[in-house]
# Entry
Amino acid sequence: MKRVQFEHSAVPYLFIAPQIIIIVIFFLWPAAQAIYQSFLLEDAFGLSSQFVWFRNYSDTIFNPSWLQAAWFTIIFSSLVTFLSLSIALLLAVKANEVIHGASTYKTLLMWAYAIAPPVAGLMGNLMFNPLIGDLYQGMNAIGFDFDHKLDPVDASFVVILISVWKQVSVNFIFFLSGLQGIPKSVQEAATMDCDSSFRRFWTITFPLLAPTTFFLMVINITYAFFETFGIIDTTTQGAPGGATTTLVFKVFQDGFRGADIGGSSAQSVVLMIMVLLLTVIQFRFIEKKVHY
Amino acid sequence: MERPSISTHIILIIGAIFMTLPVWVAFATSTHAPETILREGLQFWPGGHFFETYNEVLFVEGGVMKKVTAVTMLKNSMILGIGFAIGKVVISMLAAYAIVYFRFRLGVPLFWIIFMTLLLPLEVRIIPSYEVVANMGLLDTHTGLIVPLIASATGTFFFRQFFKSVPDELLEAARLDGASAWGFFKDILVPISKTMIAAILIIMFVVGWNQYLWPLIMTTQEDNYTLVIGIKQIYQVLNEGGELPQFQKAFALTILATLPPVLVVLIFQKWFVKGLVESEK
# Structure
């Protein structure tokens, strides 16, 4: 809040109105609908519905295919987060060291930010296409019995590889800007005190990057949960046998393809609760950051 | 500082290849004839079919989809990207101005309503959102495509943060000069926010251009497809088989969908990085 402000009148309401109106119509109302519908069971023709309390929830959460998707989402998100953060951190540390060609490296490493996940998905999908894809043939040539259309592990590998590739650039940008925010004097003092660049990194640089890393973890988990929809939809579409179905993909599948509105809504509400938890964690972290 | 070693450069070069090669291969392959691609697989050097492929994808009806051409999809993507970016900046600047510069009774609860949108990604309210837009008769319209996407909190938080850093003296001086609320916003706040506005416009153009799930469910007619959605269709066409698979066109489409946002990011790299890092704080 500003110390100096305009006196209250109708004016601020006019300024804030466009955003609030859109939010009420396109955010709050649909979200309320999702919660409401999650307690309803529609008949096969969608003509009548009855209130069934938490039945959709129990049907959802105890359903083996939902549990499979939840389990896959957890493993998938952890791997994507860990791998894309590690690769990006390594590259950012190295890019921060070089003087010659620094801006070229920077550009080449960050530009993929602009590529849409489904576009990355389709590119990857074509490269793994058995008819033409060198990656598919390469994997088989070096001795893997690789078939991402049939084998769950291979399919997960494809989805994870593309998701990591797509996310490295964002993480790289944030890590690099975090590294450049470390004062020169601190870096020079560290160089004098400690010969091994490896130890210097883990004792000085990495702790200083902790706020960036934590923040990026939340961003990456959100990405792996939601934005990878485009990648999965253009590669495996959740196959084989639901092995690469994330929770978000399942909401879409059950709601639009399966027309199971109640069940899909219940899944949506479970996802909302997960986002809420993530946000709470993020906010506790931001409060901490303010303290120093 | 010590000189970076050779291994540093090797790691960076491997990283740069990892990030760049797939797109290069996609481009190179898109310039070959379908027979060559089927016979030899992916291509690492451009071939002689550049004009043929891109001409067909861009202009020939019935080439990629049933009747829509990539030019139409390019136009739709542009409208989405630019409309989304401008809409988002206007709406969030106005809201942030109200929140930072006015004390009003509903200020705090309204701020929390805006904040709540962070908890409601499109994916968790997808079916009811679709129903709302369908009931309003907005399916297959630009309004229905853009408006539901622009109200999320990110832009508002960004401008709120920036406005808070603007010195209080500016408003004091403006009020001494008798500036109205609108006058202060228009004549002082908007001009000093120029770089911030540019940065946000760039990010939001890329975000808007790359939208997938929402355009996918709310456009039903080919005429309204964006490039990113068109990609999904060509994927299905490829999978159906039958005739000789047109891999070069699929690759060309991915390149066309990639090019505009990549160019924007490369040309405005400084602003883009600034906007990205600042807006997420």
